[in-house]
Specification:
mainly alpha, ABC transporter involved in vitamin B12 uptake, BtuC
């Protein structure tokens, strides 16, 4: 199992933390509207919460940066877990039905007039979690093999996507929200929308961190893991459930962001380590910084026009995906 020496991996932690802090700083500072941080803080200190600077900082920039950091960490850790469980570095949250489940739930919400607020986030979360539970429980029933999980995820994605297309065919207005949700965006986030997801994400990451040894055993293969006393079927279901919690919580806030769960874990494994005790926290740091940086680019590159952050990630992630596919000859890995 690849890992840098302890004295060198510290530098990777520092670099990842620096990326997170810098991306958060520039995410707050930069945007279509110029913001004076000194002016905003001065207004807050004197209690003038209605000043333009204070309102932009508190109600626009800060929740957006917090959402990007939280969702980035969640998606990256979720991808790392899924790749480890399935022993396939091309795996990502979308492969086990997270995106398709959340997309169908959002489409149905728009049909019934739920176009925003906590209810939309809740139903997106429930849709994603229900989809991955179907895959997880089905995999457990039929032996929980990696091939079974992947094939069930592909089939479920196709089925739920077809259901969403059927709904939008009969209710064309539902396609508008579905398209916005599919792209991924942080422009409409609020503290009320972030808080429930952040609690779920924090708890899930904490639990996964305590299970890092079990995750490492699972990546060794079923026979080796069983020989070391691990119940592989139950462990695989638990890890898939936790990764689903992370990804669905993020999806409920920002929509469907592609490639975060693919690109970040692969980068950490290549540069630093595949040991879960370091892999998971490094993915959280690097994923948070990466998504926040992409969101800032989406706001400033074509200012005053703003691109959805999902488009920026697609431009960055698609070539990277092809590189992994060609170099890895299909994506299978046990490192």
């Amino acid at each position: 199992m690849k890992s840098l020496p302890k004295n060198k991996i510290v530098y990777v932690y520092l670099a990842a933390a620096a990326l997170l802090l810098l991306s958060a700083f520039f995410g707050i500072l930069l945007g279509a509207t110029n913001l004076s941080l000194s002016g905003a803080f001065a207004a807050i200190v004197r209690g003038d919460m209605e000043s333009p600077e204070a309102r932009i900082l508190i109600y626009v920039r800060l929740p957006r940066v917090l959402a990007a950091l939280t969702c980035g960490a969640a998606l990256a850790v979720s991808g790392a877990v899924i790749q480890g469980v399935l022993a396939n570095k091309l795996a990502s949250p979308s492969i086990i039905g997270v995106n398709a489940g959340a997309g169908l739930a959002t489409t149905l919400c728009s049909v019934f007039g739920i176009i925003g607020g906590w209810r939309l986030s809740l139903f997106a979360f429930l849709g994603a979690f229900f989809a991955v539970m179907l895959v997880s429980l089905g995999a457990k029933k039929w032996g929980a093999s990696r091939g079974t999980v992947i094939l069930m995820g592909v089939a479920l994605n196709a089925f739920l996507g077809a259901l969403s297309d059927t709904v939008t065919t009969f209710v064309p207005d539902a396609a508008i929200m579905r398209n916005d949700f599919k792209i991924g965006d942080f422009s409409s986030v609020t503290y009320a929308k972030i808080l429930p997801a952040a609690v779920v994400i924090f708890i899930s990451v904490a639990v996964l961190t305590t299970l890092s040894n079990e995750l490492d055993l699972l990546t060794l293969g079923d026979e080796n893991a069983k020989g070391l006393g691990l119940n592989t079927g139950a462990a695989r279901v638990i890890f898939l459930m936790l990764s689903a919690l992370l990804a669905s919580a993020a999806v409920s806030v920002c929509g469907l962001l592609s490639f975060v769960g693919l690109l970040v874990p692969h980068t950490v494994r290549r540069l630093a380590t595949s040991e879960s005790k370091h892999l998971l926290p490094l993915c959280a740091l690097l994923g948070a910084g990466f998504v926040s940086l992409c969101d800032t680019l989406a706001r400033v590159v074509f200012a005053p026009y703003e691109l959805p952050v999902g488009i920026i990630m697609a431009f960055l992630g698609a070539p990277f995906f092809i590189f992994i596919l060609v170099k890895g000859k299909g994506g299978h890995s046990r490192d």
